[in-house]
Amino acid sequence: MLFEGNERREKERAMKAAGRLPPGQSLTLKWPVLHYGSVPRFDPERWDFRVYGMVAIPERWSWPEFAKLPRVETQSDFHCVTRWSRFDNRWSGVPMREILKIVQPLPEARFVLVHAEQGYTANVPLADLDRDEVLIATHHDGEPLSPDHGYPARLIVPHLYAWKSVKWVRGLEFLDRDAAGFWERNGYHMYGDPWKEERHSL
To answer: Which residue, of 50, 123, 174, 191, has the fewest CB within 10 Å?
Structure first.
């Protein structure tokens, strides 16, 4: 335990020196589990992923179809609004730019409401999804996501607080206006930039 504490402090100092630790955050070597509600059960026969709203080509993929989409591997940091950060996470999944290429958002589409199991939602500007490091992840650090971390699929938006990296994601709704998601309606910031400490709405 003492060795782990020393390792954590040394790595935290290194991340601060490298300019990778946002203000108000502390490094963790573990991966804490935080979510609202229960862990949903995955049924591959009934699971689907929908993309709809202001797109030229709405899509709906079954689990076998989604699993055949092009994949990428990325590495990025992960910052939780509850003030911990986990560094150098390795993700594997479907790149968001591949989904955007397929569905072709309309010119007036500027925001996306992310839909997940149990009615959970989060809002993200379209420009923040149209980035190389954003993906629908199915694997973390070489292993399939565990159920409590979002199995079978989780949105990863590493430059925003982790509540925007929605677990158990099931769809993307493209909009011409911003629409608050679950935590945004309950006092969290509409955007969530860790470097500006946009934790809560004013």
So the answer is: 50
